[in-house]
Design goal:
Helix 2 links the parallel strand 1 and strand 2. It is built from 4 helices and 4 strands. Helices cover 30% and strands 12% of the residues. The protein has 136 residues and is of the alpha+beta class. It has one domain.
Length: 136
């Protein structure tokens, strides 16, 4: 929950930026037995954000598969454990036409989200500048 609020605070610093933000909620701890309640979803009220519930951890498994197919490509020295769950992580992507077979290589990733807000803000600013966005 802290990550959702932290992400919302970072996005508020870029109110006019042409961002597409996807938040994926997953069942990671024992109490995650159902999709998040409206109160959790409301922690992120930015209209550029789409939120999804991934009960089967499909995105996490796909990220682990992509990383394990080429760890160095994603900045890892070795493969992740097959049972690894990717969660409480934020990733910034440059301009990506379409996510095809593999996860595009992010220009930044880190977590837990609430502890990397400064780095996230810097990465977003840099990505927006590279894309030619000059507004605030």
């Amino acid at each position: 929950m802290r990550g959702a609020s932290a992400l919302d605070e970072v996005l508020a610093k870029f109110p006019e930026a042409p961002l597409k933000v996807v938040v994926v909620w997953e069942p990671v701890v024992r109490t995650d037995i159902a999709p998040p309640f409206k109160s959790a979803l409301a922690r992120i009220d930015d209209p550029r954000v789409s939120q999804f519930w991934d009960p089967d951890l499909a995105l996490s498994r796909d990220i682990v598969r992509a990383v394990n197919d080429g760890p160095a490509r994603y900045g890892f020295a070795e493969a992740l454990p097959e049972e690894f769950i990717v969660w409480d992580v934020v990733a910034v992507f440059g301009e990506v036409d379409r996510w095809s077979d593999d996860l595009p290589v992010p220009v930044y990733y880190g977590g837990p989200v609430y502890s990397v807000t400064d780095e996230l803000q810097e990465a977003l600013g840099a990505a927006l500048a590279r894309a030619g966005f000059t507004g605030h």
